[in-house]
Amino acid sequence: MTADLHTHTTASDGTLTPTELVTAAHALGISLLAVTDHDTTAGVAEAQTVATRLQMSFLPGVELSAEGTPGKCHLLGLGINPRHVRLNETLSQLSEHRRQRNEKMITRLNALGVAITMNDVLAVAPDGANLGRPHFAAALVASGTVADTREAFTRFLGDDSAAYITKETLSPADAIALVHDAGGLCFLAHPGLLRLAAHETYETRFRALQALGLDGIEAYYSSYSPADEARFLRLAEKLNLLVTGGSDFHGANKLHVPLGIVRDGQPLSRSLLPTRLLALATA
Ligand code: AMP
Ligand code: ZN
Ligand code: FE
Ligand code: FE
Fold first, then answer.
1. What is the value of pTM for the model shown?
2. pLDDT at residue 283, rounded to an integer
3. Structural domains of the chain in order of their starting residue, each with its CATH number
4. Quick one: which of 68, 184, 241, 263 has the most CB atoms within 10 Å?
5. Which atom of ligand 1 lies closest to the CA of 250?
């Protein structure tokens, strides 16, 4: 009875379709799965259908980028209604911002002497994907401009690199309120990857987000050490925050992250997840 509550599909920057993802999860013995694509719920309905057919529990989800100051913070909405009107209106606006940002990244890359077009990016992306930097990285690799994804991010696409364009994002308050409006619980994704300001600690950041309505944190995460996990579990208990856990599976776009492997190389037992979260899953 294992769970993975953080996964990406071809609806954003994963490489498995929703059907392939759910089928792979089932084959691994995962009995509770959430699909949490970046700023879109386009993969959720298909995943839900397959999960139901395979008698798996399922949580519709989304991973929203929000202002982090400094940087970004990622917020997971779990147990949302994927057909919620205001949620979908907001996600459509974010997609339009992404489209404009992608054009700026093309312009910036061209100015840096890289001959790349939007068609080159579309050619390496699955149909209908919410396009982002991983697709740009794939296009740069395909054209031979760089050797691999790492070089693409180091030289061009990384947050501090030459072709980086900031993404218009929601404020954390708006993102949390939107998730609640859509019926879900809102969790801070992979807090270990946060950029903290000099005056901040994890505790002060968690408290600030909690004051905005944050329900919990992703205390179990594929890249955490046992010490990281213990620290986040301790803080969640101290602050009375819920916990969730997931791999952040992206398929071939993150080959070092296998599906369902959440805790220091191990799967996550459903029994470690809070009742309030489990209650939102479809049976
Ligand atoms: P975007 O939403 O378009 O800004 O793209 C963000 C995604 O790019 C993240 O979810 C990561 O999967 C990926 N990403 C960001 N930084 C790096 C990096 N340095 N190396 C590889 N992938 C990265
Ligand atoms: Zn991603
Ligand atoms: Fe993330
Ligand atoms: Fe993610």
1. 0.95
2. 76
3. 2-84+169-278 (3.20.20.140), 91-157 (1.10.150.650)
4. 184
5. 12
